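Worked problem 6 (solution included).
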Amino acid sequence: MMVSGTRYILLMIMIFEILGEGQGNCTGTVCSSNSLQMGYRSWKYIWQGKKNPALLGTEAPSSSNQEEWVSREGPLAIIAEKYLRFCTLTIFYQQETSGIALTLRRNLPYHGIKMYQLTSQDLLKKVTWSRSQCDGYLFLLTGDGHPLVRHASIDHFKAVPYKPGKQPPPLWNYKAYYVILLLEPSSLEPVNLIRLYNFKKTENLVILQERADRLRLWTHSLLSQIPSLEYLDTWYTGKFLTRTNLFPRKFENFKGFPLLVATFEHPPSVVYPRDAEENVIGKIGVDMELIRGLAQAKNFTVKFIEVSFTEKWGQKFENGSWDGLMREVYDEYVDIGVCNVFIDYYRYGEIDYSYPYNFMPGCFVTPSPKPLSNWQSPSLPFSRETWISIGISFLLGGPILYFIVVPLLNVNPEPLDFKSLSYNYLFILASLTIRSVNIVPKYWPGRFYAGFAWLSCLIISTAYSANLIAFLSVTQMSKPIDTLADFVKSGLRLGGHSFWKTQFELSPDAINTKLASMMESDVDFVSVFDQVEAGEFAFVENRQFLELNRDSRYTYGGQSTIRIVKECFVSYNIALILPRYSPLTDNLANNLMRIFESGMMRKWQGEVIQYFRKRYASKRLGKKFADPSEKRPLNLEHVQSMFYILGFGYLCSSILLIFEIFCRREQDTRKK
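Solution. The predicted structure is:
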């Protein structure tokens, strides 16, 4: 018997549907996309409210079941098809809504669908909130939806104390699409959902509320002091009445909505101007100007939350909790954290970083080379090795002259003075100082030796005299610290934030490991520079911060009393920090990129430096700093070393005189 074309097509659809029934229950597991037969299923029956024999099995549903499908599953299927077609979809259902979940799973051919029964245990699994390029979460609720309410209420999880090895506060994917179906009888109202903290931070949210024979669609306003609902559309008689965009962009204009921004003073990023009584009268700085620029571009207001100055960026404790700026952001007390925050792997899994708006290396600041005392000036023209060589030559010169002259006294009698070892030393010393002596060798062996001794001493004396003038007239400085190896050998104490200690410990380099053991984290970021200037301390921080303090507070007449070591670390990107999965991360990216590319960061930094130079002008003017290159006449300070040498000679002569007198008396006593 021949089968008509229409009936043949329907028969094929039914066969494919029967083959698809073997999918089974996917509760708590990942359900793969249905096979090719699902592509033949047309959604026009759903959208138009017509009967489709293939939707619920091999038999056509009754009229009541068809109406239920049209009123409940229909709008969900359209939303998934239109907005979430290329997203990873996760469906949470309760026992009463399991049939809807299975029907959706069976009739959505484009998704790898994960299905979970709505329990607190599944909501607390990390895999539940894993991120992909696009994520969608569908909640099918009836009753009070307690597991979801409890999970989304961040206040409850803040009350749970941290315990080592326990799950941290639950994750939430703020960038995902959320679709929530509230079925009668449900005590959960849409306004109750949007008051939950996590939903207040979620941009893409649609709530379908069942009312008699229709579904009302709501979203929330994220830019209001009090959470409020915004009407979107209504599903009635198998179609949307207005067909509006269900996921509008909500962060193009903040409409004056206040954002909480945590920060603390850390020039030049954040500076607190003060009045005569040291009261804070405002906030300026590179990062503060950045926040003001973002506020103007996005039309939001800012409420600053002060972080403890002693805690600063914060550190992580053994129980997984943080303090300082990281605590404010990690626990989601604020919307943004800002204060010269480096992007690093150690904090990457705890919070979100914005698009980087600056970059800066970490460097050391050490005392500038100190002027050497002028009493050392006579020794500076020659190196230590040269002086040692001259000393050895002098010690050997006297005995050599003695052994050359004395054996020849019977053959070629030389003056008897050369028989004295002390005179031979005096002869060599006179040669070194280019002074002639009255008694000289008369015969060739002695003259030959004396001639070469005079020639050598002439070269040494001329070189020394030529350099001595320069070393007396110009103040000599100690050797600067240019490398990390030089710093380790210097013996200076090292201070800095605990962040740097962590960076040093993670490095396999032996010098960095040594620096980690030297680190002192309990330092005052203001007074520590006075200790550096005094030569007691060294400090590690970002180059921008060090340059500001060096140029504005410790530069006198073009000379600085503190110095940034040339060898620095690799540059770190600087960014805002935001709570994990914050919708602000992507919405602020373009504005941050434009500010960075405009060069405004350098301009703002220059303004802060000028402010600091005016602020510390009295200190700089009150301290006189000598320029070592300045031309000055020689004074007593320059030539003081000569008097030290003369005094040393007087002392030695006096000691020898006393010793000689003592020996003469001993000889006279023995003769008697």
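Discussion: DSSP finds 25 helices and 21 strands in the chain.
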